[in-house]
Amino acid sequence: MTVWIVVKLLVVIAALVMFLRRPSLVWGIGLLSVTTAVLLDTFLGVFGREELLAELGFFFYIISGVLFAGATLWAWGVLWPVVGTAVSAAAAPSFAAKPSPPEKKQHANRSAAFDRQMLYDEIRHRFGREDVLDLIFDLGLNENDVMPLDQNINQLIINIMDRAEENGQTGGLALAVERILTPPPPENLPRLEKIDIDSPATILRHYLLAHYNLDQLQQIAAELDIDWEQLAAGSKQTKVRSLLLYLHRRNRIEDLIDYLHQPEDGVV
């Protein structure tokens, strides 16, 4: 009996540790389900299982059903990133049929599922929607290529990960996620004179976010003959991304670089 109690206690501690490491609704449901099940089992063992079951009657089945539903939701939330990824990959024949060297395939079988789930959890539970859109921008993806019709954020994340792998950007995806979670401080960004038309778009995005406020960004738009109101409405994060996308689609990034290099650029 003592060993069984220790095992149940270890299960509860393991669920608590996972919740503290990944505080989310999924792991909260798992912790609550496990703790309630352990407490109920212990309660029945201490006070007499048969007598209490007779007292609880149909209510016991309600409690059991709730616990089963909670465990099912937890299992689905944990397994969905891997299952959803496999389904998404199966739905893309051209990507699935793409040959790969034996050593690359062996490495993928060993670590891809873990890496994908880790990245999925980071994005799903720590990113806001604007952060996800920034991730699409930093990877140079077209929003229309990855955005699901129903705007489902889970499927959007999976689509981004699939497209990044298809483009050979797995390492770039992990780096982009890290930089969005912990943006580089202004002093670690390239100096203005080092930024040119060949600089990565993500460098420009981080530079504008770090050195310009909304009023100064609006002034830049005016100087470049861009209607500020035509850019996507929202925070500075949204405006910077929208401004860069506007210029990129019209091959005018060089105009922005030239303006920034002017002495009166208004750097804070």
Please give the structural blueprint.
Layout: H1 2-21, H2 25-47, H3 49-56, H4 58-90, H5 93-96, H6 102-126, H7 129-138, H8 143-146, H9 153-166, H10 170-181, H11 201-211, H12 214-223, H13 236-249, H14 253-260
Helix pairs in contact: 1-2, 2-3, 2-4, 4-9, 6-9, 7-10, 11-13
Largest sheet: none
What share of the residues lie within helices? over 70%
Radius of gyration: 25 Å
Order of helices and strands: HHHHHHHHHHHHHH
Unreliable stretches: 84-100, 102-111
Structural class by helix and strand composition: mainly alpha
Strand percentage lies at under 5%
- What is the domain total for the residues? 3
Number of helices: 14
Approximate shape? elongated
The rounded distance between the terminal residues' Cα atoms is: 68 Å
Mean pLDDT: 78
Number of E strands: 0
Q: What is the compact description of this entry?
A:
The chain is mostly helical and 268 residues long. It folds into 3 domains: 2-79; 108-181; 189-260, no CATH class. It is 73% helix and 0% strand.
Key phrases:
single chain, 268 residues, mainly alpha, 3 domains, elongated
